[in-house]
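User: Could you walk me through two proteins back to back? I'd like the raw sequence and the structure tokens for each, with a short line separating them so I can tell where one ends and the next begins.

Assistant: Of course. Protein one, sequence then structure:
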Amino acid sequence: MVNNDAKILIVEDDDTLLEMYNIKFKESELTVITAQDGLAALELAKKELPVVILLDVMMPKMDGFAVLTELQNDPQTKNIPVLMLSNLGQQDDVSKGKKLGAADYIVKASMTPTQVVEKVKAYLVRG
């Protein structure tokens, strides 16, 4: 059973993509909080303690890999599943994300927003 009250943090610097994901998650009756850069993402993650984080890699102020490292080093956030969400689909990027502790690595171009929502729901059921 999916917990619809659980907060999902979406970190994406592209306004259009952020809005598109926001709409898709809300259509699924999931609670979403958003950030558009790495520093805001860290702040929100620590304050709101979401159950899943969708994290873009290429962002202003702090990239997704640096944010992931910070999240993993903080006892408060280290157990939150982080799904890297990027157009960087090279094996090196995927490997780096997994090595740093990402629960999964989603290449934006290979999944529709609906598929991304379904993937996140699978993590909500596990948690």
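----
Protein two, same layout:
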Amino acid sequence: MKRAAPLFGLIALTLLGGAPGALAQDAAQAPSLDELLRRVEQGQVRDRQAFQQREAEFRAAQADQESLLAAARAERDRLEQASETLEAEYENNEVRVAELEAALDKRLGSLRELFGVLQQVSSDTQGLFENSLVNIQYPDRTAFLEELAARMGTTSRLASMEDVERLWFELQREMTAQGQVLRFPAEVIGLDGTMSSQEITRVGAFNIISPDNYLQYTPQTGKVSVMPRQPDQARFRNSVEQLYEAAGEPGLVDFGLDPTRGQILSLLTEKPSLVERIQQGGVVGYVIIGLGILALLLAAERLITLGIASSKVSAQLKRAEPDEGNPLGRVLKVAEKNRNKDTETLELKLGEAILQETPGLQRGILFIKLISIVAPLLGLLGTVTGMIVTFQAITLFGTGDPKLMAGGISQALVTTVLGLVVAIPTVFLHTLVNGRARRIQHVLQEQAAGVVAERSEEVGGGVPQAQAA
């Protein structure tokens, strides 16, 4: 019997495998089969009681569910009836709305086209006024047009007679303001970002100016600011001052008017100035300009010096006594000192005197000629370096953005122009200076030849033995 106890315990555990965990635990801990049987019976009693309790709760809950179902069905019937009532009311309202719309169309008649045109005009006028300079004086009209356009977009409310008159008034005021030159106060943003109140002048609907600057209007912000760059031409800046001073007074004043409301003026200010163009030439450009200035200074000095020398030589030709203060006087002085020498000696002495005067007359002329030759070569050098910069930009960034290549191309073209600008006048200056020096040399040689001829006639009976060099 004791050997069979474990076997029966195993069978009981197998049979109670689907029972609650408490019975399975009791069966596993039972010391004998009798005890195990007793515990099983107690477990069945507890389970039966639990089942009966749950069954009673279910029956009670079933009654509550039936009452809830009945209440839900009653609510559904009520809502269906209300839905039918609302649907009938909606259909009646649709019929009523159709009747009212028909009555409205009948009463409006041709006024419907008027309101349609009024809506279109108000929308177009709103866009026109937003970009108009007159809007600086009357900023409140934009809000009126926005409200009118929004109201005309719906049929709930039509424009009143006051709205129509106000729209006509704003259009008439805009047309009148386009022919006025008027001064009024406004807030202006300066170049340093500070805002100040000052008097500005509006020239029709085209330009606005301050006492000495053109102004610009930004429609997105409604602000007036000084243009970052003003036109380089002095006539435009002077016209601004003249018009500002004469605003409101009768008469005519010259003024640089931009009929495109600032577009041409913006393009004009974006045009690089002379200094900016020179800066585009880079180092080579500055070298060319330096050589050009040096050539001009040297040519000016030579022209002045040779002019003074030429006037002194001309004065010497009219005097019998030689003056050592001019080249011809010094040559004649040599001839006077060597008057008793033979013809060949006198000729050599005069030739030596002329050679001594030649360096002073020819000083700097060769350097001017050298600059006229070197300047275009430097321009060609700048062209080559500019193209190298351009090709480097193409290699790094491609050809998608032309602005990346503009720097090198500008340098190439500006240096070429600078080289030609320096070379062309330098050639003319060299020719002028060289011609003036040669004229003085020709006078010296002519007078020296005359002296030698006179000396030869005295010695040889009228036939000169040699001509001066």
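Residues 33-108 form the longest helix (76 residues).

Let me know if you want the two compared in more detail.
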